[in-house]
User: What shape does this take?
Amino acid sequence: MKRLEEGVVIDRRKTAKAKVKLISTDLEKKTSIVQLTIHEGRNHQVKKMFMAVGHPVQNYTAIATLSYQSMMCNLENGAP
Assistant: This one.
């Protein structure tokens, strides 16, 4: 998790620092649920970040923050 917080290199570029929180771990299934907060969104970035640290992603749900939704709304309305 520390590597994700510091940023990892994917596609020859280092990602910005991320906020990482372990939500739960299932030792029987050898899986964990992790909350990852990022401030950029390159193509398949989350999956690539976890692959870079040796933890492939089975599935994930993306949740946009209010500031991200506002930015998208501004772009759709033609704001610079």
About this structure: The beta strands are 9-10, 13-14, 19-26, 31-37. The CA atoms of residues 71 and 77 lie 10 Å apart.
